[in-house]
Design brief:
Blueprint (H helix, E strand, L loop, with lengths): L10 E2 L2 E2 H10 L7 E5 L4 H9 L7 E6 L4 H11 L6 E4 L9 H14 L1 E7 L5 E3 L5 E4 L6 E10 H14 L6 H6 L6 E4 L10 H14 L3
Parallel strand pairs: 3-4, 6-10
Antiparallel strand pairs: 1-2, 5-9, 6-9, 7-8
Helix pairs in contact: 3-5
Length: about 220
């Protein structure tokens, strides 16, 4: 975003993005507890501007994340060690996730142990070199765009995280840590509305989506 504040704290339709995201998890009956992970120095701000004003009673802790996504998730897992049989991990900047999708991911985890939300790739995908030359066109019938939430049996994702840390492996999502252990990961269909707010243009799209969904 290039702004002064973490993007999840930016307003979307007058409400902080992170507050909108956490409210979806608050509304899901299968979610018992929420741990919010935020950048250093933002814990008090999160409590004051997001958790307290919006009555997020399931948020039990607000803790500081790490330098990379994988570190942040690791700290979150440690925070619930011994307390959770299953964990569901989500990007704070995906405020359009639905409580229904959250519940569906958790329910499927009881069967599969590792479940991720995704949507089929709708565009042509090409592999491109560092020199920006097309190397090949991929068969999009087998390609899915991965989203969050990603839901796991606690012991499985904790083991995958520890193994990755020991071996110095960095994944772009939690499922990749499980995949490298040879454990099957189940894909459930997410939503094209489950937008991740990453750029200023996404804020414009997000405002339009709020109006479409009647959330503004």
């Amino acid at each position: 975003m290039g702004g002064q504040r973490p993007k999840a704290f930016l307003p979307l339709g007058g409400i902080p993005i992170l507050a909108r995201t956490l409210k979806k998890f608050e509304a899901c009956p299968l979610v018992d507890e929420i741990v919010a992970l935020v950048p250093g120095g933002e814990v008090a701000l999160c409590a004051r501007e997001i958790v307290q004003p919006f009555g997020l009673k399931k948020v039990s802790r607000i803790i500081v994340g790490g330098p990379e996504r994988q570190d942040t998730v690791y700290y979150g897992l440690k925070a619930v060690e011994g307390k959770a049989d299953f964990v569901i991990i989500h990007d704070g900047a995906r405020p359009f996730v639905s409580p229904e999708l959250i519940g569906r991911a958790i329910s499927q985890t009881l069967l599969w142990k590792a479940v991720i939300a995704a949507i089929p790739a709708g565009d042509t995908i090409k592999e491109v070199s560092e020199e920006k030359e097309v190397q090949r066109t991929l068969d999009r019938s087998h390609l899915w765009i991965i989203q969050t939430p990603q839901s796991f049996e606690y012991g499985l994702i904790a083991k995958a995280q520890e193994k990755a840390r020991e071996e110095g492996f960095g994944g772009t999502d939690e499922a990749s840590l499980v995949e490298r252990m040879g454990i099957p990961v189940k894909v459930i269909e997410g939503s094209r509305f489950n937008l991740k707010i990453t750029t200023p243009e996404d804020l414009v799209l997000g405002e339009a989506l709020l109006r479409h969904l009647g959330e503004i």
